[in-house]
């Protein structure tokens, strides 16, 4: 099964009747690297067990929203659910593993989606870390995300402050084990 073209993928995401935020469900930040939210029909509470994201959409999906349905068979999914609130309280080891795996897949030519619920903050945080790992400064990553995704992206000031002050150091840490 071949991947949908970027324009076909945007059309597919635009057809989601439940998203309702006057923007696309998913946005391409850089070629092959996408950021977005979770469709209403793709939440665990929705009636149908059929996954919304299929192998012709993405190769790898990073899911940060705990109520999102799993993706379809033959799509690699990395899940790390955490809250969009006033602190970044995710284990740094887990965060680095997630970012490293998503970045590696993208660099190998795989189409990668980073998704949360609305597609603004949690996905913005992880997307920024992937971009920083790729060589952008935190400020450049934040600006690119807001330009390509939405001016509402990374509206969580705590996440932005964390990216500006701590992200680079966290990505450089070399611990081998998660925090106890």
What does this structure look like?
With 180 residues, this protein is α/β, with parallel strands linked by helices. It has one domain: Protein tyrosine phosphatase superfamily (Protein-Tyrosine Phosphatase, Chain A, Alpha-Beta Complex). 35% of the residues lie in helices and 12% in strands. The chain has six helices and five strands, in the order αββββαβαααα. A five-stranded mixed sheet has the order 1-2-5-3-4, sandwiched between helices. The longest helix has 16 residues, at 92-107. The relative contact order is 0.17. The mean pLDDT is 88.
Question: What is the topological layout?
Answer:
Elements: H1 6-14, E1 26-30, E2 33-36, E3 60-63, E4 76-79, H2 92-107, E5 112-115, H3 122-133, H4 138-148, H5 157-165, H6 167-172
Parallel strand pairs: 2-5, 3-4, 3-5
Antiparallel strand pairs: 1-2
Helix pairs in contact: 2-3, 3-4
Q: What summary fits the major beta sheet?
A: 5 strands, mixed
Give the class from helix and strand content and strand pairing: alpha/beta
N/C terminus separation = 42 Å
Q: CATH class, please?
A: Alpha Beta
CATH architecture designation: Alpha-Beta Complex
Taken as a percent bin, the fraction of beta residues is: 5-15%
The total domain count is: 1
What is the mean predicted local confidence, pLDDT? 88
Find the CATH topology: Protein-Tyrosine Phosphatase, Chain A
Shape call: globular
Order of helices and strands: HEEEEHEHHHH
- The Cα radius of gyration reads 15 Å
Helix content class: 25-40%
